[in-house]
Amino acid sequence: MVYRLLVVDDEAFALKSVVDTIDWRSLQITEVFSASDAEEARERLGEHAVDVMICDIEMPGENGLELLDWMKRRGITTETIFLTGHDKFDYAQTALQIGCFDYLLKPIAHDRLKETVMKALRKLEDTRRKLSLHTKAERYENLLKTQRDVLVDRFWTDLIEPTGETSNVSVSEPHTSYLSMIHPQFSASDVFIPLLLSVDRWKQSFGSRDENILEYAMMNSARETVLREWMGTVVKCRSGAIFIIIYDAMRIAADMKELEWRCRRFIADCNQYFYSHVSCYIGLPGPITGIAGSCAELLDMERRNVSRSDSIFVEGQNYEDQVSMQSVNWPSELAVLFESGKKEELQRRLDELFRVYENQKSFSKENLKAFYYHFVSMIYQTFHKNGISVDHALESLNRHDDMLQATKSLPQLRAWTKRMIDASMSAHEKRRNREPSVVELIEQYVQSHMSQDLTREDIAAFLHFNPAYLSRLFKKETGLSLSDYIMDQRMTQAKRLLSESDLKVSDVAEITGYRNFSYFSKLFKKQEGYTPQEFRKRNKR
């Protein structure tokens, strides 16, 4: 470590004596600067990072005390040793008050001055070492906090949407050690509340980049408006679904009205500040082992909501067809058998299940409805996972009287289940092999409505999908947001018409859905690097 020294004295002989006759290099001081007054000293301090300053107090004009005060106000951390020919107590008191290292009387022996400078350097080194440790500690603390946030997001995302290595982990035995590592104050026995935030529709058309920015702002707003002092986290899953996970839910569950009020405040803020209509789907309090199932139920509620926006829905409420499913033990392997097309094995397993139900005297009307909705949910999840529209394939599932007939009695439910297995598996196979997927239907709709004002809400209404769910499904399958896809298709159509036809540029704009010619021209140049007219000249066939 090397150091710099500044000597300030208006007496030229004293100044030269200190600078030239002391072996400063033995203290690893490689540069020694000099100044004859405070003004010259400020220049040296501005030009160089000085470690120690030896300064006379009595100087013409500004004295040494005033110079040190100036240094302190500007954050200059140079250690200062004062020299003076007068033994004035008020000088010494002031010097120590404003932070000098030592106060020495002239004349001073060179050995003692050198020893004092050495002590000042030790103090300086100790201060720097402590500051370095503090800085490192802050950096590591910030790094740990940042990494902890990443771990928290990864933990909840993998729990809600299992994938990769974590997909084989039993939900009934979650990573309790992992949970205690990222949340030391929690355990697997604690109770949590999941809450789904769903963008029903945007108030105007945005590209995917702008939508992502707005969603990020909405997530921050959710932390401030919904969570506030409650402990919890906001997670955006791989599918694009945004969840709030509320910790310590037992206390909050006692007053759900407060949670609903906060959700209403959040919905109002999204309307006002984030150009969006948003709905909140609140799950029931439960242990961590039930989080994935509860989140799946909230997503299913979102999918079935095609008419209401800016609303709050609570699991088990708000829908006439929403009933408690906790009373029916729904085996997870049924969905696996259904999705893999193992019809005979699925039917055998259901027969075993119905035999158990027949021996339960307490099996109620609510249990029948619970089974019905579990089964319907299984069909919807499987069909949507494979990009097949249930509403087009199984129209009976949309009829209220179908549910009433199926849930009149256990025998009728059993007969309905058998018919539905035959119909749904047949439709699944038929639609998957011969009919267009949801993504293909979207693409067909965009192509045939190119000249109209296309929105994701129009497409969702045509296909009977929830807009937010449809948007995530399309992006998952294609990698593009609906708004970006629509713009891309319009630009492709415009380039084709400009290259292959003699239509006016204004007509091309209108055919591709742009009523404002000026806007079309600016957007085209932004996308292609040329105005429509320049593009036509370069590419006209």
List keywords for this structure.
541 residues; alpha/beta; six-stranded mixed sheet; five-stranded parallel sheet; 23 helices; 57% helix
What can you see in these coordinates?
It contains 23 helices and 11 strands. With 541 residues, it is of the alpha/beta class. The strands form 2 sheets. Strands 6, 7, 8, 9, 10 and 11 form a 6-stranded mixed β-sheet that branches. A 5-stranded parallel β-sheet has the order 2-1-3-4-5, sandwiched between helices. The radius of gyration is 37 Å and the shape is elongated. The two termini are 73 Å apart.
Q: How large is the share of residues in beta strands?
A: 5-15%
The parts where pLDDT drops under 50 for at least 5 residues are 164-174, 318-327
Report the structural category. Answer: alpha/beta
Average per-residue pLDDT, rounded, comes to: 82
How many strands, which pairing sense, and closed or not: the largest β-sheet? 6 strands, mixed
Classify the helix fraction into a percent range.
Answer: 55-70%
What is the tally of beta strands?
A: 11
Number of helices, where a helix is a run of at least 4 consecutive DSSP H or I residues: 23
Shape: elongated
- How far apart lie the N and C ends? 73 Å
- What's the alpha carbon Rg, rounded to whole Å? 37 Å
